Amino acid sequence: MPSRSQSVTSLADSIPKALDAVADDGDLAPARRGIQSAGIGFRVLAALAEEAGPASLTAVARRAGLSASQAHRYLASLVQSGLARQDASSGLYDLGPQAIQIGLAALARTDVFAITDPAIAAFTQETGRTTIVTARGPLGPTVVRWHAGRIPVLTSLAVGSVFPYLRSATGRVFLSFLDDTEVEEAVARELAADASPTPIDVAAIRATIRADMCATVDELLIPGLRATAVPILDLQGRPALVATVMATSAFDRRDDARVTAALQAVCRRLSESVGGRWPAS
Question: Packing angle between helix 180-193 and helix 169-177, nearest 10 degrees?
Answer without folding.
Answer: 140
